[in-house]
Amino acid sequence: MNETETTKVFKWRELLDEREVRLINNCKTYKNDDPAGLPGHNIMLIVAKMADLLDQTQGFFIWHKETMGD
Question: Which end of the chain is more exposed for a tag (fewer CB within 10 A), N or C?
Answer without folding.
Answer: C
